[in-house]
Fold this protein.
Amino acid sequence: MFRLMDLHVDVGTSLLSEKVFGGKGFLDAGPDAQFDLSKALSGRYSWVVSAVFPGTRFVDPGSGKVRVTFGCSRCITLEQVKAIVSVEKAFAGKVKVARRFEDLKAGMEGTLTLIIGLEGAYPLSEPADLIELSELGVKVLGLTWNVENGFAASCMSRKDYGLTGSGEELVKLANKLGVVVDLAHASEKTMLDVLSVSRKPVLISHTAAKALNDHPRNVSDEVLEELKRNGGVVGATLVPSFLRQDGKATLEDFVRHVMHFVEVAGPDHVGVGTDFLGIPSTPEGLENASKVQAVLEALLKEGLSESEVEGIAWRNAYRVLEASLPQ
Ligand SMILES: [Zn+2]
């Protein structure tokens, strides 16, 4: 079994939801839970980028569709950061929140290190607000979720304006502060703009290959080639609709996307970002964190070497964090 770093699990919102960890807690949330501490450790997880989702979901009474608003994002962000830090307190010795690179190194066998990742820059009213958030523990910064903002266009923007002037300022400040920029959910132009501006390697934490399934959330080969030049890492996700148009994705589909990433970006630029706790269903055989090792076994069968698979399992993403996080 390889050690694992998962680049995207929706820990923040789940901690605030009684439906997910409520009653049973973070330690063992029951057989149907996609992620909890017991499943993570039995799947040999050592690090997980724990997402803070700064929006409020509600069902539009007219259309019945789920909508998301970011009006209270600052407050929601702080509550989720507080909840993640409270997990560290509750499971002292087993769970650690990464504040600097030293904390990643300390990720010992049988412990889980949480890296706090903000899924969209909505709580920031100006780039300098990142100083406060990074001090609170935010070490990965997504520029957008599926809604555009004053920093960047999202993958769902009608007009792809890419990175704005203040977006560029934000990326430069993130480089300086040791916060890794995450391009998941960003538009094509935003990704290319950031890849030309960022002095540090970036993450595209949870996505799939556009060449295999033309979904707006997936990444193009052009982006993958630029990512290779940047030294960053793309995290292959389990979201079924990203893997296959009909949404009936299997482990084989997931492996196909990973192999495409390996082919275009190279084996040193690929990782895993499941999106556990953020997806209604997963491919069969990959229902929860204890089962992700099956992917790595499948990659060995595809002919990747032990060291290439180890890179995908954790070492590549670890290298990206090492290049940014304060020592
Ligand atoms: Zn997401």
In short: The pocket of zinc ion is lined by residues 119, 184-185, 206, 278 (CB under 6 Å). The domain at 4-324 is CATH 3.20.20.140 (TIM Barrel). The mean pLDDT is 95.
